[in-house]
Amino acid sequence: MFSWDLLSGALVFGLLLGCFYAAVSIGLSVSFGLLDVPHIAHPSFLVAGGYATYWLCGFGWDPIVAGLVLALPFFALGVGMYRGYHTMFESRGTDAGLRGLAFFFGVAFILEVALILAFGVDQRLVEAPYIGKSIDLTEDLRVPLRLIVAFGAALLLTIGLTLYLGKTFMGRAIKAVAQDQVALSLMGADPVRVKQWAFGIATAVTAVAGALLIIVGPIDPQLGRVYIGRTFCVVVMAGLGSMSGTVAAGLILGVAETLVLTFFGASWAPAVAFGLLLVVLGVRPQGLFGR
Amino acid sequence: MKQSKQGAVTRRTFLAAAGTTAAALSAGASAQGAPIKIGLSIAQTGGLGAGGKAALLGQQMWRDDVNARGGILGRKVELIVYDDQSNPATTPGIYTKLLDVDKVDLLVAPYGTNPTAPIMPLVKQRGLLLMGNFSFEVNERIQHDMWFNNAPWNDSVTWFTGFIDLAMKRGAKTIAFLAADAEFSMALATGAKNLAKHNGLNTVYDQKYPPNTTEFSSMIRSVKAAKPDVVFVASYPSESVAIVRAANEIGLGSSVKVFGGGMVGLQFGPIMESLGSQLNGIVNFTSYAPEKTVDFPGLKDFLTRYAVKAKAEKVDPLGFYLPPFNYAIGQVLEAAINATKGLDHKALAKYIRDNEHKTIVGPIRYQRNGEWANARVLMVQFNGIKDKDIEQFRLPGKQVIVAPAQYKSGEFKFPYEKARNG
């Protein structure tokens, strides 16, 4: 059943959802895209960010504020985790192949079980003035405020990260370590410390994205599994390490999913991510914005 | 001296006393016997985990009550439990282990349709009694004559008659379906579609979505655009929450008279508390609501004791939906074992099939297909719900029973938009 009304609605919801997809993927774009770390536990960290937000909201905090505050401990967590990964794998040269992947799989499962033990298996939601309300864009198009807030926060997050990587000394060092680690060390910089910092940034961003996750919908300890495919798809489709590409890929995925869902049936929606990925990689193997 | 002689313990009297004590102890041990082992898998993690934990607590309470009374036939009851992670792929392996390694005496099915369906061929092949645990139409094709479901329903007709009747009596002509693409929800939706067709309702929107879909705004908008009179939803807990939220944000339109039907999750305390006022106006199935029309002997006492344990175990504090019916599984088994004086599965199944069973969820009599002969699927309408208050759900009038007629506790409010806004 086609109508212009449904089409305009699908486009709006797709853009909002797409920006949210970009926000939950952008941390991975740094850790996997720039640092080449097989961070399969990324979605579990997202969920952990969501639960930490839920915990702080219990004290009356706003979820966005909670996400921003959580970025600091998550940064420390990321630094510590990369340190462990480097010591156990990279420094021994055993990070290639399945070992690094297995390490992060293990981290994901441990995190999942820890969340179950701490919070139980019940779904958790948060409350905020912008959750459960909507605004009328047109007479027939009502949009949930939580999606608009998530859209705005995701946009700011992406712009902030792009500026940080492009304009600051440390940001440029992170980009440099992604390009040539040996050259960076010849310049007198310690690539391990730069990567450690970058992994911390990626994890801190995940805390904010986790807050967006629980704003958009209910979370449970195993929700991360739902996002593994989507987040990796966005990052690879964008071109590894491209922040603007991550936003573009997220938007394309969101719009395509919503259009398929509206006009062809929801059952096809999960296939959209990997269908698009196959097309993009077939036409442009380095990804949309990859070099 | 006499006294001393009487009180003196000679070697002969000591040995005699020791012998008597040993004999008595051994007789006691023989009466006590090995425990009756009841095996089950039940979701403790995954999508069904929240319900599974509460359900298991119900069965554990029955076990503790029985053991406090001295067990059954002088034998204690032991539950051997595995977490199936809400994953149907795990249950055939778990039940094979329960039978061949743990050597359990009796089986209780996993919670829910999806994890139960894969073990039906196994129990039929081995000719075993299986006590069902809130699954829907899993015995429809297998036709196992030793299957007995604890859920208060039968087929899809008994499930939805009340829901569809509410709409038909208010002049409904069109219906929209939204269902998760999984065994349970598809069976529910198929039944509802057949009943809708039988009643002449025209389907204007029919969408099945993959489980774990997180965002429903687009789908709800499409539903609204179709302008249905009835919106039927068959969903699992996480999706139910997202659907209710999206319906409140986007709106369903003024045409909708009844919204709800088969949403799993809206029976669980933590979800009800989280959604709060967003539940108002929704008509959904449940097994129990604290209304006078469904007050059975022993139920309130059970729920009071459950509430204390649930707090300690951090599970659903209300426990209306699954725990009492899980306790009832034990009561039915207990009655059958006592009556047949043994654990022979065929004898137990015959007893369960031929008799009515007194339980805390009311009398249960089974049909040939192992489902309730007198189905009692309650359609409740959420009414006057406030935010952030779980205790309100313990009061009558918050989940008004609007169907079936014999359990009705209040008037159905419609259309949905009006009922939603009080």
Q: If you had to describe this structure to a student in words, what would you say it looks like?
A:
The complex is a heterodimer of chains A (291) and B (422). With 291 residues, chain A is mainly α. Chain A has a domain at 27-224. Chain A is 73% helix and 2% strand. Chain A is built from 11 helices and 2 strands; from the N terminus they run ααααββααααααα. Chain A has helices spanning 4-34, 42-57, 63-88, 98-119, 145-167, 169-179, 181-186, 191-216, 224-238, 243-263, 269-283; strands spanning 134-136, 142-144. In chain A, a hairpin with a 5-residue loop joins β1 and β2. In chain A, α1 packs antiparallel against α8, α2 (42-57) crosses α8 (191-216) and α3 runs antiparallel to α8 (191-216). Chain B has 3 domains: 2-32; 36-149 and 297-354, Response regulator (Rossmann fold, 3-Layer(aba) Sandwich); 156-292 and 377-420, Rossmann fold (3-Layer(aba) Sandwich), CATH 3.40.50.2300. Chain B is 43% helix and 16% strand. Chain B starts with a helix and ends with a helix. Chain B is globular and about 65 Å long. Chain B is built from 16 helices and 12 strands. A 7-stranded mixed β-sheet of chain B has the order 7-6-8-9-10-11-12, sandwiched between helices. A 5-stranded parallel β-sheet of chain B has the order 2-1-3-4-5, sandwiched between helices. Chain B is α/β, with parallel strands linked by helices. The interface between A and B is large, with 43 and 45 residues.
Give the H and E element order of chain A: HHHHEEHHHHHHH
Structural class of chain B: alpha/beta
Could you describe the largest sheet of chain A, including whether it forms a barrel? 2 strands, antiparallel
| Mean of pLDDT of chain B | 91
What is the number of E strands of chain A? 2
Task: List unreliable stretches of 5+ residues of chain A.
Answer: none
What's the average pLDDT of chain A? 91
Tell me the structural class of chain A.
mainly alpha
**Biggest interface, CB < 8 A:** A-B, 43 and 45 residues
